[in-house]
Design goal:
DNA polymerase, domain 1, 124 residues, mainly alpha, single chain, rod-shaped
């Protein structure tokens, strides 16, 4: 590997010589040992950043999975998680909730007349 390979662009040779000198030794970093230590530190930092990116990608995948599981019930004001689960336990699916009458919806724990009407309106 050439020192200019560390730089990008048409002026890579110029920057390599300016940074490392004509003999390839660092004029800014001191000895070649210091350069090797610096490169080792940079590689470790890259590894840490790659691990962080992987964790963030996993979190993003989890968020996307959760948003994909959202149902039209999530958009109904006053219908929290517990009431939503009660409806799904009773009817089995959003489609069956949509087909249920207001009276049948009112039979579910936590669902009153006004909320049942709101559910019917949002799901129709």
């Amino acid at each position: 590997m050439r020192l200019s390979d560390l730089f990008v662009g048409e002026h890579a040779d110029y920057y390599a010589e300016r940074t490392f000198g004509p003999m390839g030794f660092s004029t800014m970093l001191g000895s070649p040992a210091e350069l090797i230590e610096l490169l080792g530190n940079l590689y470790r930092r890259v590894d840490v950043l790659e691990a962080r990116v992987q964790r963030l990608e996993a979190k993003l995948d989890k968020i996307l999975d959760q948003s994909a599981r959202r149902t039209p019930l999530d958009e109904i004001k006053g219908l929290g998680q517990e009431r939503k689960l009660n409806l799904l336990r009773r009817f089995g699916s959003v489609e069956r909730i949509r087909e249920a009458s207001i009276e049948e919806l009112c039979e579910v724990s936590g669902i009153g007349l006004i909320l049942a009407q709101r559910i019917k309106q949002k799901l129709s």
